[in-house]
Amino acid sequence: MSRILGIDHGTVRIGLALSDELQIFANPLKTLDAHPDVEEEIATIVRQKRVEEVVIGLPLRMSGERGSAAERVDRFADRLRKKLPDEVQIHFVDERLSSAAAERSLGFTGKKLDLEQKKLVDQVAAVAILQDYLNTKAGPEGWMLPDEEQP
């Protein structure tokens, strides 16, 4: 099976997460600087890691409405789509509070973070985005143990 790439897109940094080949677990991959050619860098990762789907966190407002941040992510996705092979699908996942949850899970809440800690937060946020997608894709049956065979 191929892998799925999760992206937490920010204006300064972009966190990446990668699924295992069975598409069950999301793992931190790396954090990229948000630079003008970052889409090409991500497309290279997609080809190297045999990625078949890309999941991007969509930063909706707390009300669920789209704002300027969601529009920025849409533009990023359009640029990325042009760099990816045609068979790679792009999906969006509601990412409200993913970075705050990542900070909380790492014990960074209320602390001033250094650059390495910020990069880690971006990766963990990408993991949360991707894991949410993987769980939804698998559905409830994906987490059930198989029935034991009776002799």
Structural overview:
The chain has 151 residues and is of the alpha/beta class. Helix content is 40%, strand content 24%. It has a five-stranded mixed beta sheet with strand order 3-2-1-4-5, sandwiched between helices. The longest helix is centred in the last third of the chain and has 24 residues. The chain is globular. It starts with a strand and ends in a 13-residue tail after the last helix. The model has no long low-confidence stretch (mean pLDDT 84).
Order of neighbouring strands in the sheet with most strands: 3-2-1-4-5
Helix content: 25-40%
Major sheet: size, sense and barrel closure?
5 strands, mixed
Radius of gyration: 16 Å
Describe the structure concisely.
The protein has 151 residues and is α/β, with parallel strands linked by helices. It has helices at residues 38-48, 68-83, 98-106, 115-138; strands at 3-9, 13-19, 26-33, 51-58, 89-94.
List keywords for this structure.
globular; alpha/beta; 4 helices; 151 residues; five-stranded mixed β-sheet; 40% helix
How does the SSE layout of this entry go?
Blueprint lengths: L2 E7 L3 E7 L6 E8 L4 H11 L2 E8 L9 H16 L5 E6 L3 H9 L8 H24 L13
Parallel strand pairs: 1-4, 4-5
Antiparallel strand pairs: 1-2, 2-3
